[in-house]
Design a protein that fits this description.
four-stranded antiparallel sheet; 11 helices; 28% helix
Amino acid sequence: MTQDTTTRGTDPAVQMPPERLLQVENLVKNFPITKGIFFRKQIAAVQAVSDISFHIDRGETLGIVGESGCGKSTTARCVLRLLEPTSGNVWYRGEPDGDSSDAIEVIDIAAANKDQMRRLRREIQIVFQDPYASLNPRMTVASIIAEPLLVHGIGSTSDRMERVKELLKVVGLNPEHTNRYPHEFSGGQRQRIGVARALALNPSFMVLDEPVSALDVSIQAQVLNLMGDLQEEFGLTYLFIAHDLSVVRHVCDRVGVMYLGMMAEVTDRDTLYERPMHPYTHALMSAVPIPDPTVERERRRIILEGDIPSPINPPTGCRFNTRCPRAEFPRCSDDVPEMREIEPDHWVACHFPEVQKVV
């Protein structure tokens, strides 16, 4: 007896505001650690992402920041289903099939079947961190950018070539360079090629996984300005993964702070940088350079003690309690803090949130 999977991944009961594009609920991703050669027995698990929730509205940019290894990129890959989530939901409001807005359906990416994922791949794309590793060195620029069109059977050969030239022009590259290979371009140009490939299918939602961290500082601003122009021109929605807080403040509308696989604080950009509430966010903001020598000398740096705990065996209760200067025991070590809305649109996962004004 075969099981009908045509409705798998959809839930008409899920309520999402009309302006919302993506809603992540209780997302978990564990990587098993196994032992043995023939019989692979799981002995532990790396808890990369632990029960996080957030949302993104159409046309906005949500940034996710945190230390290396906190689960930012894993979260992004689970949202796109490049990694299979252990549990949780990733609700996405698909584009209408016709002129009627009633045709828009809410799909759970984490549970979507193959046919649904094939359709979703045209709407959700990613720009990877390393432009030197994300492009096939044996393929020409034309083949790289046209590959999504070829996979989805869009257009003839001549139509695809015209689309490639159009996309190269959009990202600021010479459309006559279609027959060149990736090694003939600089790092910034390669990242532009990656952006052109991501735009080939006219997506609505794009994940930018540290798109400028591998580039020279002089090139970073060019790529970031390009992404801003493309967002305005095509109405794109971004999930921006980064660890450079200055870059995040420049490009993001709202920001989520992650620590050891969990979301610590989520609010709009200006509130986060001017009035952070979570102790971990306080420490992050104190490390952002201020272009005023007088103010920089007078401000107080918050130096966290100890090392980041292992995600294989994270602390109980609040995961930040082993390094937190305001931790109170046993509450912080026993109780997991709930993500609460302390102020309008300002969510904090802390037992003792405190506003700290950043100079």
